[in-house]
Amino acid sequence: MAFSERVTRLKSSLIREILAAAQRPEVMSFAGGLPAECMLPKVEWADMPLTLGQYGMSEGEPELREALAAEARALGVPCEASQVLVVSGSQQTLDLAAKLYIDKGTEVLLEAPTYLAALQIFQLFGADCLTVPLQAEGPDLIALRQRLEQHKPAFAYLIPTFQNPSAVRYSEASRDAVAALLDEFGVTLIEDEPYRELTFDGGNAKPIVARLNKASWIYTGTVSKTLLPGLRVGYLIASPDLFPHLLRLKQSADLHTNRIGQWQALQWIGTEHYREHLAELREFYRQRRNAFEAALQEHFADLADWNSPQGGLFFWLTLKQKLDTRTLLDAALSQDVTFMPGEPFFADPDVNHGYLRLNFSHIDPARLDEGLKRLAAVIRKAVTRQAA
Amino acid sequence: MAFSERVTRLKSSLIREILAAAQRPEVMSFAGGLPAECMLPKVEWADMPLTLGQYGMSEGEPELREALAAEARALGVPCEASQVLVVSGSQQTLDLAAKLYIDKGTEVLLEAPTYLAALQIFQLFGADCLTVPLQAEGPDLIALRQRLEQHKPAFAYLIPTFQNPSAVRYSEASRDAVAALLDEFGVTLIEDEPYRELTFDGGNAKPIVARLNKASWIYTGTVSKTLLPGLRVGYLIASPDLFPHLLRLKQSADLHTNRIGQWQALQWIGTEHYREHLAELREFYRQRRNAFEAALQEHFADLADWNSPQGGLFFWLTLKQKLDTRTLLDAALSQDVTFMPGEPFFADPDVNHGYLRLNFSHIDPARLDEGLKRLAAVIRKAVTRQAA
């Protein structure tokens, strides 16, 4: 069996395995990043034209591209519809970016921690992952400058707004500083923003790509967190120098994004009923965040520290006693509770023990307290054993 | 700008450019592979459960996988639902296979001619393409044995049933011989079958993967040619040794295939109303094939030779006077007619002049005669000029 060299770096996905385990109805899962089922909006299909069954354009549906460009301009991103590429969920943007930039040994710059599925695909293509520690207001700027002085990464991949997993949102000052550094060193920015709309304090900072003067950029978003993930409709907006390459890579990947989902997305993007839905969603998740934090205070105050997330879907816990959180999974599952260990969110997992990502959007509120109580007990037991 | 080495092999897609030109309503296009609009079935969405809006499994919807496995078993392919991976159109199977097998310089074995989008993605990943000439009943078996004796390709990519572009269907004897050779040399088979259901003479030969005893295999199909391409729902079925790798690659590419299209596909696969629709579709295309062939006889008898396709969507013409058919495109477009040059379907286009692929399924019958007449005139003029 002669597979590609790449396949030697194809890891079993911890996420997939945890999510599979979480399918058992008795399991209380803090592991995934799933929207709450009850907040999936009711969608109508009756008016969809039959002609959408035909093959479509690789770029995406023209009207949807116009609508997405208008939304991005409203955020301050200078762009035209011709720069918008509709993709099969924003995961595909990572695949296209990996193909565009990464050979074996190509250096790329990531936050630590970062989104683990991005890490996986960049590593699959053979990237050497440079990292910059994430702090409460954004990346460590001294470390960022050092990396840029000492290396020439093909791109910086950043998730500045309610990052998965850490929930960090870059401050205004941090956004400006990062943009200035990327311009100074001429490094392309990939800015991933799946969680921007899920803001609990109304904050709406301008994207970093909108603060760049020279560097090339890809801005990426999705309807998966606010409308329906099952549609698999995401998008990227790229600086004009990058767009033609990304378009050809999209075409070779799957010809075009499904038109049914694109049509449904178009019924929402930029409309008043979408704004109303988003307002409800923010309020709903804000309440879930509050309830979750109250339960955390009760069960985890002695075990971990955290910042209260101002948006997104996750709490990021730092254990007071470091331990490899992957070793807790079996014990947690035996208690019908699961979570995401922090290690896989780091390029160097074995020196980054002691973090947990807990999703607060999807758990049934009636089981929240019991779930966190059980998880705390599992951790407490492991801490005690480690101390012994 | 530092792109990957791969991007130097990213060609502008001739297909995309021709299809873009063909968007002008006055253009009579024989270029694409589009189903006839009037044969797109009316689909109902009213009963789709809202829960399908949630994230799904990377493998695909369980019921759809069961239905696809049952269909494949009925063709003689020994498989279980656990071997079925639903993909975002069968183009994605090519992307996943390229990732699984191809490093720079990896040898792969293809038909000549072959599907150009397969050629493009295999070459994008750096494959060295070995080829075997296609004859009326299948590949040149002496050449195939020679290639296998002299090389060790990572896989053979074959389209044995109404190939795009040549419309060739392998005979029973050819299928057996190919399977025996791949078993003998232990070469993995990727068998691509988008056109199997579009048979005009009722032929239904067992797939080659069903005739293998030892070699690994990937069998790939789609609903794009028989239901709705805009759904972007295809599938692969793989031997159990390959499946786990393909599944992880699928997850890293786009998490999972859109569930809306999967649900719609499930409403059809294996049902009586799908069988009725397929019967109508075959009769409709058979009549279009007949009308097309009559018009070809009238306008092209002195210019080209062809075999009458027994299925699929294309005529493959061999010009009596060889010339680079790519050079005809501008002249054809100036006459508001377009077609697919044959050269891009060959790994070595510059030594394979003189073929044209003509789609017969999509053209308005009222414009068929005028379109072929204009195209013949363009070719006749070029032949005359070449002779001068």
From TrEMBL, chains A, B:
It comes from the Bacteria. GO terms for biological process: alpha-amino acid metabolic process. Its cofactor is pyridoxal 5'-phosphate. InterPro entries: Aminotransferase_I/II_large (IPR004839), Class-I_PLP-dep_aminotransf (IPR050859), PyrdxlP-dep_Trfase (IPR015424), PyrdxlP-dep_Trfase_major (IPR015421), PyrdxlP-dep_Trfase_small (IPR015422). Keywords: Aminotransferase, Pyridoxal phosphate, Transferase. One of its GO terms (molecular function) is transaminase activity. Residues 51-375 form the Aminotransferase class I/classII large domain. Pfam families: Aminotran_1_2 (PF00155). Belongs to the class-I pyridoxal-phosphate-dependent aminotransferase family. Homodimer. This is Aminotransferase, s I and II.
